[in-house]
Specification:
The protein is mainly α. It has five helices and no strands. α2 (27-34) crosses α4.
Length: 73
């Protein structure tokens, strides 16, 4: 179970980083738009955090995508 969560977190982080870069946003800019701390965005992108659904929703909104775009990998 732990291994599955680690893989999910890494895939989610990779997807967020990919979309953020496509939008030409820095981690700081994404954090500001999502009303989250930039270090939290960094940890999510590096697969080191298990973000809440609220945080995922904020990030999706800040990126201008639906949540499904972040969790479909």
């Amino acid at each position: 179970m732990l291994l599955i969560m680690v893989n999910i977190n890494k895939e989610l982080g990779k997807k967020i980083r990919e979309l953020r870069k496509k939008k030409e946003l820095t981690q700081e800019e994404l954090a500001y738009k999502a009303e989250l701390d930039y270090s939290y965005i960094n940890q999510i992108e590096n697969g080191k955090r298990n973000p809440s659904m609220e945080a995922v929703e904020r990030i999706a909104k800040a990126l201008g995508v639906k949540i499904q775009a972040l969790v479909s990998f």
